[in-house]
């Protein structure tokens, strides 16, 4: 029987790795959360805008309903209802996430929307949808961070805020 042995790591390189890990540990949660909030807002808000009739803020366009009838074809929901729910979810959840109000709820909502898109609409586009899901789950788990309305409200009400 052959025995495999591994050389001990060079102490100098191990120290360098530890220092690098220490530098990464300094990246603040609020920065990651802020970037995730902006990224998700950008994707979902502009998707909602493509569903809106010209010259309106929230009136669903005929072309959006057509897409849900002919291309998206979600199971269990009539196309017009699905189009209205998508417009509502993309609009409301993206605004909540951007300003950091009910960030965990908004993140969970956007995660659910991305999951539906991945599973039922464009299953081959996981390389696009997985980063959205990661950002949304991060916000659902950790919240919007120090620079969010959630944190501001917590400070005003005297609640202890934990920023992971």
Form type: flat
Mean pLDDT: 92
Strand percent estimate? under 5%
Q: How many individual β-strands?
A: 0
What share of the residues lie within helices?
55-70%
Poorly predicted tracts of residues: none
Q: What assembly state would you assign to the polypeptide chains in this entry?
A: single chain
Main location: membrane
Pfam families: DoxX (PF07681)
GO cellular component, one term: plasma membrane
Keywords: Cell membrane, Membrane, Transmembrane, Transmembrane helix
What does this structure look like?
The chain is mainly alpha-helical and about 160 residues long. The protein has one domain. The protein is built from seven helices and no strands. The chain has helices at about 10-25, 30-50, 60-70, 80-100, 105-120, 125-140, 150-155. Helix 2 (about 30-50) runs antiparallel to helix 4. It is found in: Cell membrane.
Task: Compose a concise summary of this entry.
The protein is mostly helical and 164 residues long.
